[in-house]
Amino acid sequence: MSRHLSVDLDHVLCSVATLILLIISAVAALAQGPPAEKKKSSAAAAPTVEEARRFVEQAEKRLLELWIKQGRADWVAQNFITDDTESISAEADKEVKAETAELAAAARRFDKLKLPDDVARKIKLLKLSVDVPAPRNAAEQAELAQIAASLKGDYGKGKWCPEGEAGKCLSLGQMERILAESREPDQLLRVWRGWHAIAPPMRRRYQRLVELGNKGARELGFADVGAMWRSNYDMPPDAFRAELERLWQQVRPLYESLHAYTRAQLVKKYGKNLVPDDGPIPAHLLGNMWSQQWNNIYPLLAPPAGDPGFDLTDLLKVKKVDERGMVRYGERFFISLGFDPLPQTFWERSLFTKPRDRDIVCHASAWSIDYRNDLRLKMCIEINDEDFTTIHHELGHNFYQRAYNRQPPLFQNSANDGFHEAVGDTIALSVTPEYLKKIGFLETAPPPADDLGLLLKRALDKVAFLPFGLLVDQWRWKVFSGDVKPADYNKEWWELRRQYQGVAPPVVRGEADFDPGAKYHVPANVPYTRYFLATILQFQFHRAMCREAGFTGPLHRCSVYDNKAAGAKLKEMLEMGQSRPWPEALEALTGEKQLDATAILDYFAPLKKWLEEQNAGHKVGW
Ligand code: X8Z
Ligand code: ZN
User: Fold this and answer.
1) Phi and psi at residue 194, to the nearest 5°
2) 386 in ligand 1 pocket by Cβ < 6 Å?
């Protein structure tokens, strides 16, 4: 799924044969230098701007073709995990990695030229277009692509077969349900351990992937893969790191209030022996396999007064909405903002339910196979509140992909990766009681006096997520830079989880474990800081769209459903793709040029006040 969260285009104007000829002649032209008549005046064959432009155009054509092939191979591999599909997909990935490495090397010829902004930007984006880049060595390219494909496949196949229950194995989805619903600590612990047992076999391959990826990154001129990932934010990589720290310090007090309140309720439920009242919370008690979102334990935390009085999961069941029906609700929201309906092929080619007869990668994803109009969703949908939100998240990717499909291939991406993750979440913030009333789910919207529960539930999703959104890449950056050695992989993982999240392992962990591997984005090599950024950004987007819609009440009561003015602003930003530095895209929607945590802080301000009252006399922090 490397680029399909991003790109989209189908006007491959020439046939494959013509394309090959074009490439051969372009490569030949590059090898020979400028045409003969120009050579008269410049014996050194200095590269020209015109040549750089032609080079980039050819590179985009070639890459687009390879990306589409890679996308199809990956789609099949993720929908039917077998040794063969894994190998076909690794082969396609290898071709992309190899071609990108060659093109990036060839582009160095233009290093000293003053290039027009768009050409320079495309050359930079070309270098950054592969998440884990390969060295320019065929054997290593094949090895890296094979490792990457096998790690993703292993995660997809992962299951837990409890001892003594012959033949009965649980899928990740089933284990996640247990973590969400059970309040039985022993059972929670067994399931938590069961899932984490999928990861140790990945460790050696992951270590090798780090070595090979780093070699590729160094050949591209980056210190390591982490430094490369931090270079895609239109600012120096160190400035980006500092920006993250600034944002984290802004939201940390809100997180710590929520943590303290949550811990106190868990102490009441499970006792001090299990939950220390002044230390980190054991990771298996928060309703989620990675303790990343805590909304599933809302019933344990609900405020005595201020419960919203409805539950979206129940409403979906009462209304007999099925999986496709849930996706239709998401689509209709985007249509109400002025976006075109999804193409018929979306409904024919997407996967909405977990097949019973084969292994697939169930982790939800949104694809644009042809970089044009062949949009797809792949998700093992369950009829519940959480998946209703995730569907909106995924459709945000699809509508973004289609909005920028007129951009040249290297600009077919979000302004930065946080933008891609934020769009659908922004829309889901508009799923308010008033919206549910409009679509016929509720007869009356509860009075705003009862909003505390709504806010708490949202905070357990969004605020609880913030430190997790940061720490996954804090870990990977240290791993890629060599600051953390393989012998300390797991120790550092838990150190960061303690430091940022205030969460502890439920049992002693050691270096025979590889707990980061039990989180999809690590074996799948999807950078994670994007989700932290998205959590900040979506509140900025929401605030701006509500302003555009003329809404004046509290932000958590605002829904932009059916508002064409807000939709037009959003579309304006989405259509820019990655053609301009992200602050310009942000400005197009919000009028602001900076990431700004005041939007999320304002949104939760009434809750923060209440949490502080609840926490009076209790330790905050761990
Ligand atoms: O991976 C996702 C999406 C696909 S981009 C389902 N998310 C992160 C996660 O599951 O860890 C959305 C929230 C964070
Ligand atoms: Zn996403």
Assistant:
1) -55, -50
2) no
